[in-house]
Design brief:
mainly alpha, about 120 residues, single chain, rod-shaped, about 5% strand
């Protein structure tokens, strides 16, 4: 049977990552990493709070203060690693997609000019 700690840690992680994205403005491709790190951090923070037994803010047996603190530490760790990791050296250039229709040139203009000399006949 699954205990309430992983589910409450997921709720705490979702709240704190949402607050981080609200403060920061965007998270980009780091969002799944932020969610996983914050979830693991909140779960670990609950365990630390249970060991220390000094958490003033609790939801049942879930230690909310330590869970929030360690979740923010995990979010900060992901943000720092994202800054330290170098960006891609090659930029991906997307293919240009247009919805306009180009009209072809008339056949007279696209054909080469006719020469005045007659073509040689085959014998």
């Amino acid at each position: 049977m699954i205990g309430p700690a992983p589910i409450l840690a997921a709720i705490v992680a979702l709240f704190h990552v949402s607050a981080y994205v609200f403060i920061r403005g965007r998270a980009g491709a780091r969002l799944p990493l932020l969610l996983i790190a914050a979830w693991l951090g909140a779960w670990a923070g609950d365990t630390v709070g249970a060991r220390l037994a000094i958490d003033p803010l609790r939801v049942g047996e879930f230690n909310l203060t330590f869970a929030s603190l360690v979740a923010w530490l995990a979010i900060g760790l992901v943000a720092i690693v994202a800054i330290l990791v170098p960006e891609r050296t090659t930029k991906r250039i997307p293919a240009e997609i247009t919805t306009s229709v180009r009209r072809g040139t008339p056949k007279e203009e696209s054909m080469p000019a006719a020469s005045t000399e007659p073509e040689p006949q085959a014998r």
